Amino acid sequence: MAFDVNHIREQFPILKREVSGNPLVYLDNAATTQKPQAVIDAIVEFYTQCNSNVHRGAHQLSDEATRRYEEAREVVAAFINAPAKEEVIWTSGTTEGINIVAKGMAQQLQAGDEVLVTEMEHHANLVTWQQACKLSGATLKVVPIHDTGELNEQAFTELLSERTRILSMPHVSNALGTINPIQSLTAQAKAKGALVLIDGAQGVAHGDVDVQAIGCDFYAFSGHKLFGPTGIGVLWGRKEVLENWPVWLTGGEMIETVTYQDATWGALPNRLEAGTPNIAGAIGMAAAIKWFQALDVDAVKAHEQALLDYALELAKDIPGMRIVGNAPKKIGILSFVIEGAHPADIGFLLDRQGVAIRTGDHCAQPLMKRLGVPGTARASFSIYNTFEDVEALFKGLKKASMMLA
Ligand code: PMP
């Protein structure tokens, strides 16, 4: 199937708008992606046709809402090749998924146990484990990276031991774009008896995720980075592990029996999903996945790689520009600094030209410190970006660097 970027763009209404009198050039996709009409329609249709609460109604609307909500779970399960739909837990996003695992783990960890993370963590996967270690007395070990932004695999092997209770690391770095060799690292960690959580926030929208092939115990991701709505995400976990996982939130939906003195928990997935869920969000996320699955994944990857290659070529013409993170295996993320120019000023001047990027520490303060930069400017590409978008970025950067540097 030929990859037709114009056909894709037509499906994203927001791409037709202007910013500062210029056509919008949206290059902040690692923060959140735009939504195709199919997703917007699915949410509007839910609220206009069958809005109701799920699982407890004795009426048609509730039955319809429940059916769509549970079908959405099946869509997610098939998308990540989960063996069972009960292993798909709806969350508010990656952050909540990681917290479910870390808060549960904190009850089981003790002094002498170790938790392994990497130097390239998003705060969601660093602070959460740091706090779990503080609570439990376990030790947080941080796997170093090379200056290229690749994980130091030798150091990883050395840090891994029988004391490692869990490895929690990103599939793809949000600040640098590095794609980590999660399959082989997971195998090594499992061989030592550790659990493995993969932070999939940046992994899902750029290729095919197969949780069984990865071999991990948990995989967490967000709908909004996958062309779906905000406020919805998924924690996938292996049934044997999730079945006994300490409950996170308590309340309605997640119980089996309740007395004034005590309560027992229901079966998966409900035991980890207390309260009224984000029904429209789940339906919208499933619509996004279906929309994405209709595309040719290899063509999507090739398109994003071509955009990155073009950007790297044009970067050579900007005096003082340095790419931060140049791992050979990376997604379409261009993190950079320009000598003499503050990233925030670059972002501001680009915005005046309609080009949306992100600047700052990208929720990875220790990583910025490790790399010796106060922050970076980050352009991140997605399916609907064009070569003209890349040219607009560099036209803007030329102007900005003349004014600032
Ligand atoms: N991990 C990574 C690698 C991310 O990029 C993000 C989002 N920037 C998160 C975790 C947190 O995701 P969310 O804010 O959707 O919970």
TrEMBL record:
The protein's name in its UniProt record: Cysteine desulfurase
Cofactor field: pyridoxal 5'-phosphate
Keywords, in A-Z order: Pyridoxal phosphate, Transferase
Domain Aminotransferase class V stretches: 25-393
Keyword Zinc-finger assigned: no
Domain of life: Bacteria
One Pfam match: Aminotran_5
Described purpose of this protein according to its UniProt entry: Catalyzes the removal of elemental sulfur and selenium atoms from L-cysteine, L-cystine, L-selenocysteine, and L-selenocystine to produce L-alanine.
Organism: Aliidiomarina soli
Top class in the EC scheme: transferase
GO BP term, pick one: cysteine metabolic process
UniProt entry tagged with the keyword Transferase: yes
Reaction catalyzed: (sulfur carrier)-H + L-cysteine = (sulfur carrier)-SH + L-alanine
Gene3D superfamilies: Aspartate Aminotransferase, domain 1, Type I PLP-dependent aspartate aminotransferase-like (Major domain)
Family to which this protein belongs: Belongs to the class-V pyridoxal-phosphate-dependent aminotransferase family. Csd subfamily.
A GO term for molecular function: cysteine desulfurase activity
InterPro entries named in the record: Aminotrans_V_dom, Aminotrans_V_PyrdxlP_BS, Cys_dSase_SufS, Cysteine_dSase, PyrdxlP-dep_Trfase, PyrdxlP-dep_Trfase_major, PyrdxlP-dep_Trfase_small
The organism's taxonomic lineage, starting at the top: Bacteria, Pseudomonadati, Pseudomonadota, Gammaproteobacteria, Alteromonadales
